[in-house]
Write a structure and sequence with these properties.
Cyclic Phosphodiesterase, Chain: A, 29% helix, single chain, 5-stranded antiparallel beta sheet, 189 residues, 4-stranded antiparallel beta sheet, alpha+beta
Length: 189
């Protein structure tokens, strides 16, 4: 049996941005939604979810990330707006959006997806939408209440931050929430 690990590729957030998001989460908790809140230290910008991979492939994946990042400058981003997937009538995920240099982020994600596609990983079927997952639904959520919360907190905007590193993470799912371990990374020059 091969050694497989659950993995994804993402950009970490600086502490001041995680603190900003944590305050939004705390305020939204007062609405009493039936959700599992993502711990602020685990919030990141997912560029590609790989799922289970052979542990031996981590070096090749990191190489594909580095190739995709080559010649791409760091990206200036901010956090703004609140949305839901798939829609307000049956929300499964509550997220915050990104603003700033989102086009270079989309191009980076496409390059990573392309490089990994050449290695046999399935390409994304949906267009990339950079976001930060705040919570996942555990039950039905009152749409009116959720719209109220989105209006109350969706206008807040973080200061900008520089995304300059792409990281391959291992994800260990635990009852208290996922534990992420860095397996490899590359810099945006």
């Amino acid at each position: 049996m091969s050694d497989t690990i659950r993995t994804f590729i993402a950009i970490e957030l600086p502490e001041n941005i995680r603190s900003f998001i944590s305050k939004i989460q705390e305020n939204m908790k007062s609405y009493g939604f039936k959700v599992r809140w993502v711990r602020p230290e685990n919030i990141h910008i997912t560029l590609k979810f790989l799922g289970d991979i052979n542990e031996a492939d981590t070096e090749k994946i990191t190489g594909a990330m580095s190739q995709a990042a080559k010649g791409r400058p760091p990206v200036s981003l901010g956090v703004k707006g609140i949305g839901v997937f798939p829609g307000i009538k049956r929300p499964r995920v509550i997220w915050m959006g990104l603003n700033g240099d989102t086009f270079p982020l989309i191009e980076l994600q496409k390059a990573i997806d392309e490089n990994l596609g050449n290695m046999g990983f399935p390409k994304e079927k949906r267009p990339f939408k950079g976001h930060l997952t705040l919570a996942r639904a555990k039950g039905n959520i009152d749409s009116k209440k959720l719209l109220d919360a989105m209006k109350a907190f969706g206008g807040f905007e973080s200061e900008t931050f520089i995304a300059d590193k792409v990281i391959l993470f291992r994800s260990n799912l635990k009852p208290a929430g996922a534990v992420y371990t860095k397996l490899g990374s590359c810099q945006l020059p």
